[in-house]
From TrEMBL:
PANTHER family: GNTR-FAMILY TRANSCRIPTIONAL REGULATOR, MANNOSYL-D-GLYCERATE TRANSPORT/METABOLISM SYSTEM REPRESSOR MNGR-RELATED
Protein name: Winged helix-turn-helix transcriptional regulator
Source superkingdom: Bacteria
Species name: Micromonospora thermarum
UniProt KW keywords: DNA-binding, Transcription, Transcription regulation
PROSITE patterns noted in UniProt: HTH_GNTR
Keyword field contains Transmembrane helix: no
Pfam families: GntR
Keyword Transcription found: yes
Residue intervals of the HTH gntR-type domain: 5-73
Length: 76
């Protein structure tokens, strides 16, 4: 019986798809972790894990005190 993917993976994959499609462009500011948690109706920890996964994939970059942004994509 197949299991649903973890909520943080669903969120990360949603943002990754938006980045890859061009809906979110390099330099675009992402919503705060609180806004993501509210939008997806998940805990702050789940939203944070999703953002951490995107950071590990080098799709986003954090700027302390400023926010989280779509990373510049190498080779584009």
């Amino acid at each position: 019986m197949p299991t649903a993917p973890a909520p943080y993976k669903v969120i990360a994959n949603d943002f990754a798809a938006k980045i890859k499609s061009g809906e979110l462009k390099p330099g675009d500011k992402l919503p705060s972790t609180r806004q993501i948690a509210d939008q997806y109706e998940v805990s702050m920890n789940t939203a944070y894990r999703a953002m951490s996964l995107l950071h590990d994939r080098e799709l986003i970059t954090g700027q302390p005190g400023r926010g989280t942004y779509v990373a510049e994509q190498p080779g584009r």
